[in-house]
Amino acid sequence: QVQLVESGGGLVQPGGSLRLSCAASGFTFSSASMTWYRQAPGKERELVAGISTAGGSSYYAEPVKGRFTISRDNARNTVYLQMNSLKPEDTAVYYCSAFGYWGQGTQVTVSS
User: Dihedral, CA atoms, 59, 24, 100, 41, nearest 10 degrees?
Assistant: First the structure.
């Protein structure tokens, strides 16, 4: 069955960095476009970034452009989200998604 397992979240100060990982199984990872979403308390889930099957194309939501980088390693069936210059408004549960499936999410808290 499809499994997506996020990790790497935590508490970080404003201006800090985190690297999220999403390990995928149960499907042909190299055939799947992958996306990261986030959901802040009291808000709807929103798209953060996406990457094509081979990693040659990516896109970002406006609030994270220039600060976040999505990448993937098809040999490891893993997609990453490098988050730099973090702001308090980046606080959310971050999810990866593929083919309509979702992981359990990883909490990112940006606070001093």
Answer: -70
